[in-house]
TrEMBL record:
Native organism: Hypotaenidia okinawae
Domain of life: Eukaryota
A GO cellular component entry from the record: late endosome
GO molecular function: GTP binding; GTPase activity
Matches recorded under InterPro entries: P-loop_NTPase, Small_GTPase
Entry keyword annotation includes Thylakoid: no
Protein name per UniProt: RAB9B, member RAS oncogene family
Pfam families reported for this sequence: Ras
Organism lineage string: Eukaryota, Metazoa, Chordata, Craniata, Vertebrata
An annotated GO BP: retrograde transport, endosome to Golgi
Family the entry assigns: Belongs to the small GTPase superfamily. Rab family.
Keywords noted in UniProt: GTP-binding, Nucleotide-binding
Length: 131
C-alpha cells in the first residue's frame, strides 16, 4: 500500500475538507483514524493535527465555521483555520500553525525527558560513612 510509506514519519497532519462539500467534512473522522493507523502514531491524543476548511472562496457553504470548530473541540481540541488554495487565503498561516503545533509537541517531549535524565558526570558524595 502507498499509504504506509507516505504517512510514516509524519510530524503533523493537516486534515482538510471543503466547506462547500458536506461529505468531505463528514469524512474527517475516518481520515484521522486512517492517518493514525497508517502513520503508526504512538500517542494519537498528543499528535499535532490541524484542521483546514478549504474553498472559502466558494459562495455556497455546506459546513459552517461554528460546526467545524465544534468538531475540532470534540475530537482533540485541534486548531481550525479556513483557507482558499485558489486565492491563497490563509495558506501560509495554516502551515505556520502546523509548525507551531509540531514545535509545541517537541517542547513537551523535551521537558518530559529532562525530568528523567541522569547526569553521569556529577560527583555527589554521600554525607555518611561507615568508619
Amino acid at each position: 500500500s502507498l499509504r504506509t510509506p507516505f504517512y510514516r514519519g509524519a510530524d503533523c497532519c493537516l486534515l482538510t475538507f471543503s466547506v462547500d462539500d458536506r461529505q468531505s467534512f463528514e469524512n474527517l473522522s475516518n481520515w484521522q483514524k486512517e492517518f493514525v493507523y497508517y502513520a503508526d502514531v504512538k500517542d494519537p491524543e498528543h499528535f499535532p493535527f490541524v484542521v483546514l476548511g478549504n474553498k472559502i472562496d466558494k459562495l455556497e457553504r455546506q459546513v459552517s465555521t461554528e460546526e467545524a470548530q465544534a468538531w475540532c473541540m470534540e475530537n482533540g481540541n485541534y486548531p481550525y483555520l479556513e483557507t482558499s488554495a485558489k486565492d491563497d487565503t490563509n495558506v501560509a498561516v495554516a502551515f505556520e500553525e502546523a509548525v507551531r503545533q509540531v514545535l509545541a509537541v517537541e517542547e513537551q517531549l523535551e521537558h518530559c525527558m529532562l525530568g528523567h535524565t541522569i547526569d553521569l558526570h556529577s560527583s555527589s558524595k554521600s554525607g555518611s560513612s561507615c568508619c
